[in-house]
Specification:
The protein is of the alpha/beta class. The strands form two sheets. The protein has a five-stranded parallel sheet with strand order 2-3-4-1-5, with helices on both faces. 53% of the residues lie in helices and 10% in strands. The longest helix is centred in the N-terminal third of the chain and has 22 residues. It has 15 helices and seven strands. α7 links the parallel β3 and β4.
Length: 302
């Protein structure tokens, strides 16, 4: 649903099914299942939040008023575990249930919020918040906002503005802070005001090897490629070796590996200048396109 479309009217709904049908929240959850492999605990937590909001709608219809649920969140996990994708789906879910006006996501990092000189940070932060109002603000690697070792750092100013808005305008903005779990834990200990405003802490686990293989096949399909005979097995071997190496970024690393395989495939086909290339040639990733990776030469399998 476009951010410009009206918020669905669920005021007359009397059952959970009616709220789901009128808001099309079930479609958001289906998209989440389709877009993301695995992540069962994350998906269950999103379903729990959706259930809370649906029941809150039914309670409001009967005059059972309560404080609006706090929806600020923390997403923790390694790179490539789907945090941004889940944040996008959460923005859609909140809009379809009428908890946000627009349903859009504004994703930022420290550089978008913190200035380099006195008087620069407040305007930058307020401009980002203005763009995010009515939707979700996603702050990736949020712990970089806090640098106590640098007395001249202006990140604390951005944090204080965020705190004020998270408290006073929580009906019109949901803030999601994301990053590595250990660093986020330290960040929250150093900024208890932020921690107290976060109602939902969701941890994103790393993908298992089989899940990464499935992710790779989905990525290829979305790009109109496929594994040829023996290539899936070669890519499984690649993943086993790559997982044993440092700096593995889950789905992000899978995408990078497939991009490199596409380059090798293109180079291989480019060399056959006089042969008519069929559709099968153009869409097939061969085992050689995977096995040429340096991971098969730099390190043994785990």
């Amino acid at each position: 649903m476009s951010a410009l479309q009206a918020v669905p009217d669920t005021a007359a709904a009397r059952t959970v099914g009616e709220v789901l049908a009128q808001s099309q929240v079930a479609a958001v959850m289906d998209e989440l299942d389709r877009d993301l492999v695995g992540l069962a605990p994350v998906k269950q937590r999103i379903r729990d939040i959706a259930a809370l909001l649906v029941i809150d709608k039914l309670r409001a219809r009967l005059g059972l008023q309560a404080n609006p649920p706090s929806l600020h969140m923390s997403y923790t996990g390694n790179p490539g575990t789907g945090k941004t994708t889940v944040a996008m789906r959460m923005a859609q879910l909140l809009h379809r249930l009428g908890y946000s006006r627009k349903g859009h996501l504004v994703a930022v990092t420290r550089d978008d919020l913190v200035g380099q000189y006195i008087g620069h940070t407040a305007p930058k932060t307020k401009e980002v918040l203005k763009r995010a109002m009515g939707g979700v603000l996603f702050v990736d690697e949020a712990y970089y906002l806090y640098r106590p070792e640098n007395e001249r750092d202006y990140g604390q100013e951005a944090i204080e503005i965020l705190l004020q808005v998270m408290e006073n305008q929580r009906d019109d903005l949901v803030v999601i802070l994301a990053g590595y779990k250990d660093r986020m834990d330290t960040f929250f200990r150093s900024n208890p005001g932020l921690s107290s405003r976060i109602a939902h802490h969701i941890d994103f686990p790393d993908y298992a090897q089989g899940e990464l293989l499935q992710i790779g096949e989905r990525m290829l399909g979305a790009m109109n490629y496929r594994f040829g005979p023996g290539t899936r097995e070669a890519f499984a071997q690649y993943l086993a070796r790559r997982l044993a190496q440092p700096h593995f970024a889950n789905a992000r690393s899978v995408r990078n590996a497939l991009d490199r395989a596409r380059l090798r495939q293109a180079s291989r086909l480019f060399a056959e200048r006089d042969r008519v290339l069929t559709e099968a040639d153009l869409v097939t990733i061969a085992p050689a396109d995977i096995l040429a990776s340096r991971v098969f030469h730099d390190a043994p399998a785990a």
